[in-house]
Amino acid sequence: MKTKYFKKSEAERAFFLHLRKRVYEKLEGKSTSHGDFKFWFKGVFWIAVCYFSYSLLFFNSLSKINFWLLYVVFQLAGLLIGFSFGHDASHNTAFKNKKWNGVLHFFSFLTVGIDPLLWGLRHIRSHHLYANVEGSDIDIDKNPFLRLSPTHPWKPKHRYQAYYAPFVYMFTLLHSVFMSDWVYLFSQEYHWMKKGVSKTELYIRFVLYKVVYFSIVLVFPLLFTDYSWSFIILTYFTASAFTSLVFIIMLVGTHFFDGADYPQPEGEFLEHTWAVHQLYTSCDWDANKSWARFLSGGSNCHAAHHLFPNICHTNYSEINQIIKETTEEYNFPYHHKTLFEMMFSHFRHLNKMGKPD
Asked: Where does the record place the Fatty acid desaturase domain (predicted)?
């Protein structure tokens, strides 16, 4: 990863100091650094849905279509556990105790397949620091199919990427399970990401996690149901594809949207301070809708999350308006759309990136 330095600007610094003051005054008296009742209720709800639907898979009287539907519910609910519990645990905002956050983080990703420790390291040490910065934010790394940033080289196939992108997105989780995790673990290119973490711990947790994950999603259904191995594997791949699309719908447009900034630093220095950088590179969707926060674990309030990652996401509903008003007062951007508008903006962005420079 290329280390960059954020600009020192008194005006931008004054903005963030004022914003922080308003936010913490609004939340005064609340325990914002760990989960409240709403946080635990939501997470436990999705755990119940996930593992109840999973237990029903082993009833012998199930038809194939019912088995497939229950498997999809199991996978989707598992993803929402990750959104509701795992994301906050990675930022140590579920429990006061860091070790308990690590335990929750591990178990919150069990049905998703992405190694939680590796994901957490790259999420905190790369993406949250340098959102949309080529060479510094892993989430914007070049991929062989899509051109997501103007900093990526253009190829003729990109003319059609707005049309084939949904098919690429269907493989998001499978790609992470079978490729990305292994690259992040073994490649020396990402040694900076794993700095300070014992190699032994990384390898043991990785193996343990993958064994438990594949046992849950494939081995147990193969051993303890009467369906053919081909049907079980087909169910696994199709459910993963469907879950990947839901994952992408809620997240991809929060940084890759028409109007997002993709900073190209002059030397080692970025154009803005860290806080203002987050505003130029993030987009909220339906931030004031309770159903959106319930499903996304607060990821729909992306500006709030990037500016205040140490605040539990169930508090975002109280600070979105403060962010909007303060950015207007200081004339900084605050991108907010409905979910449909954000996805439309994302595909408009893909179409724009598909044209030669």
From this structure: 67-337
